[in-house]
Amino acid sequence: MKTTSMILTALLTSIALAVPAYAQDFRGADQISGSLGGRVGLHDAEGGGLFAVEYGHRLSNLTWLNMELDMGFGSGRTCFVDSSGRVVCAATGSQQLDALIGARWNFLTSNERLVPYLKLGGGLAFLFWPGFDNDGFAPVGRAAGGLKYFVTPNVGLGGEASLTMGPAIFGCGRDCTTTDLYAAWAMMGGAEIVF
Hints:
Layout: H1 2-18, E1 30-43, E2 48-58, E3 63-73, E4 78-81, E5 87-90, E6 95-106, E7 114-128, E8 136-152, E9 155-171, E10 177-194
Antiparallel strand pairs: 1-2, 1-10, 2-3, 3-6, 4-5, 6-7, 7-8, 8-9, 9-10
């Protein structure tokens, strides 16, 4: 009896594994998402809260064109460039706006509701720091990975982590600019709608 149950278990397991894995069926060609989280500045970047909105358009079953707009706010640590060109950090507020475009790849899993993904993209980060003539911008690249769980065929919940890096150009007073590395790590959670 024990041998029969083991054979039956092995047979059912092999049948289950042989069934093709279907990713979330993505009935629509478009997706929008909103996320809320936080950012940690790794090198001359402010941290704080982060709100992101995304739009994606399906190019193939697994590949999406991805456009993202992030708004940073409420930093507990704000950095700005002083008149001597040094980066100075203080406990005042700052704001940031990132505009990015790139690609997103959704991966197949055996659970059609569970969709891991990878995003690569680039764009501009606009940095608004306190004081006069010290705002800046950075052409940046971003790598992100995340996981969504689709509670309905068109609504997914989940989170992602990302690393953003690039050379930043800051104002350091009147008629003065300086450059430095910009790097930040972020984690967010949110919802996605496929339509």
